[in-house]
Structures are given as structure tokens and as C-alpha cells.
Write a structure and sequence with these properties.
The complex is a heterodimer of chains A (about 90) and B (about 210).
Chain A lengths: L8 H12 L6 E7 L2 E6 L4 E6 L2 H15 L2 E5 L5 E5 L4
Parallel strand pairs in A: 1-4
Antiparallel strand pairs in A: 1-2, 2-3, 4-5
Chain B lengths: L10 E5 L7 H13 L3 E4 L10 H10 L3 E5 L15 H15 L2 H4 L2 E6 L17 E3 L4 H16 L6 H21 L4 H5 L3 H13 L4
Parallel strand pairs in B: 1-2, 1-3, 3-4, 4-5
Helix pairs in contact in B: 1-5, 1-8, 2-3
Classes of the chains: A alpha+beta (about 90), B alpha/beta (about 210).
Chain lengths: ~90, ~210
């Protein structure tokens, strides 16, 4: 594989950007939308299931995250985000 | 003929407040405009102390076919203050540009946003005939109004609103993680300059969004 030419500022910026990418992998997300809480699978960008309440959605997403050994990300309505990792479980 | 990819026909001037209270909504507007394939033009996109503010606004308005005017924060920040006149002033400049401008400028389209639909008709009755959309300070409603307006105004197929909402949330998680990894404090992350925010969104989009 050819080595990146780091003396080229554009190439250097691209390499730095790639290195700075978060090393978190994909996750299940719990997201509010139009009075429902849905569980989104980031790997497929599809909704797996939706719930009337946040607790039900979080519980379901947590099980899926545990089974898949990936993260769970809960998006609250105020914009705050909390992440739980099940990668080592 | 395919739509242009840059320039006047892709620019969206965003006229909104820049205070911390409104910042989350301003970032939502910027994200959605970018993700729909347009270029947000906003007064805070560049910082040049030597640039006269009204001249910058004039340039942004003249170079944008589309514009979004959020009048929801016209009220004074403190009870003893006067109302904030910048937003309606810039809306007036934009409408004037359309009415008195060249044929190209007459093609301008604007979205006027408010918290509640008829709140300002009493004090800004000159725009009573315009269709003002209400977002009720609800981010989901804001995304819906913006996406639907851009879809109709541009005539272009855009992402379904629910996909746009999902991506906005996922980007929020991505940005938070990225800023933490880069050593930003929570305070610095909240105070992220708009130009930097735009750059993060663009980089994320380049990475391929499902």
C-alpha cells in the first residue's frame, strides 16, 4: 500500500481527520419522535421498535445492545445524551 | 437540468439570534440545511472585526436564494431592555431585496418562523399576510417546518423528515464524543463557534451517513 504523502497539507489534514474520528463503533439509539420513543439501529439506520414511554424503549435497546455487544445511546428531549457501553459485557 | 451544487441557488441565509438560549435551535437549522444539500449563510460563519455588520448581512442576503427568519426571540432579554430589532430589520432587508432587486433576486424564497403562529401580528402587522410557521420551541417541529419548506421551495427530493431527525441525533452523539476525545471541556463544547460547528457537520457528512 502506498504511503500517504504527509508533506502535502491537504493529505495531512485528511489523515489527521481520520485519526480524530471517534473510536466508538455503532450503537443502538433511543430517540423521541412525535410522541413516541423509538429504538434505532445505527448499523442499518432503521427503527427496530417504537414505544409509548422512554423506559420501555431504553430497556429494549439495552437488551439489544447487550446481545450485540455494542453501545446504547439515549437522547433525552432536552438534547442531553448518555451512553452505556456493552462492548465488553 | 440538475440543480446547481453551489452559489446563489444553494445558499440559505439564516437570520436568528445568537444567544446561548437559542443556540441549540440555531445549530439544528444549520445541520438540516447542510444535510439537505444546501449551504447555510449566517452572520457568525466568519469573524472579521473589520467588517461592518450591516454590510455583511447585505452580502449574505444578496447571495442567498433562500432565507430563514426566526422572529421567536424578538422580546427583550431583560424586562428593562428594548425588544431586539435585528431579526425584523433583516427580514425587511430580505423582503426589500426581493421586491426591488433584479430578476434573480425576485426568485428569493423565505421561511418566517415564530414560537406561536399569530403572536407578532399585533406588533408587526405589515407581515400579517405572510405565512408564518410556528415551531413552539420544539426541535422536532423546527426540523419538520424547515425540511417541508425547503422541499416545496426547492422542488428537490430531500431526505424524509424522520431520517433527518435520526441523523441530527446521531450527529449530536458523534460530536459530543469527538469533542471529548479532542479535550474540549463541556463549557468549550457548548461555546463552539458556528464556523467550527459547520466544519464538523461537513466532515461527518463526508464520512458517509447511512
Amino acid at each position: 500500500m502506498a504511503k500517504a504523502n504527509l508533506s502535502d497539507p491537504e493529505v495531512r489534514d485528511q489523515v489527521i481527520a481520520a485519526l480524530r474520528k471517534p473510536k466508538v463503533g455503532k450503537a443502538f439509539h433511543v430517540i423521541h419522535w412525535k410522541n413516541r420513543w423509538k429504538v434505532l439501529d445505527e448499523r442499518t439506520a432503521r427503527t427496530r421498535k417504537s414505544f409509548a414511554d422512554q423506559d420501555g424503549a431504553v430497556e429494549h435497546a439495552r437488551e439489544l445492545a447487550r446481545d450485540s455487544k455494542i453501545d446504547l445511546v439515549v437522547h433525552d428531549r432536552d438534547g442531553s445524551i448518555r451512553r452505556e457501553s456493552y462492548r465488553d459485557s | 437540468m440538475p440543480p446547481p451544487t453551489e452559489g446563489f441557488g444553494r445558499n440559505v441565509f439564516i437570520n436568528c439570534p445568537f444567544d446561548a438560549d437559542y443556540l441549540p435551535l440555531a445549530r439544528i437549522l444549520v445541520f438540516c440545511v447542510l444535510r439537505c444539500g444546501f449551504q447555510p449563510r449566517i452572520a457568525t460563519e466568519r469573524s472579521d472585526s473589520g467588517e461592518v455588520r450591516v454590510e455583511k448581512i447585505r452580502e449574505l442576503i444578496q447571495s442567498s436564494r433562500y432565507s430563514i427568519h426566526d422572529l421567536s426571540r424578538m422580546e427583550p432579554l431583560r424586562p428593562e431592555d428594548l425588544p431586539r430589532f435585528n431579526m425584523p430589520f433583516e427580514l425587511g432587508l430580505d423582503l426589500g431585496c426581493r421586491y426591488y432587486g433584479t430578476a434573480r433576486l425576485k426568485s428569493k424564497q423565505c421561511l418566517i418562523l415564530e414560537t406561536e403562529r399569530y403572536r407578532y401580528q399585533k406588533v408587526l402587522s405589515d407581515i400579517a399576510g405572510n405565512d408564518i410557521r410556528a415551531h413552539h420551541d420544539d426541535p422536532e417541529q423546527l426540523v419538520q417546518e424547515l425540511r417541508d419548506w425547503l422541499r416545496v421551495s426547492s422542488g428537490e427530493p430531500l431526505l424524509p423528515v424522520v431520517k433527518l431527525w435520526d441523523q441530527l441525533n446521531r450527529f449530536g452523539d458523534h460530536l459530543e464524543t469527538l469533542l471529548r476525545q479532542q479535550g474540549y471541556s463541556e463549557r468549550n463544547a457548548q461555546a463552539l463557534e458556528m464556523a467550527e460547528y459547520i466544519s464538523f457537520v461537513k466532515n461527518w457528512m463526508v464520512g458517509g451517513v447511512a
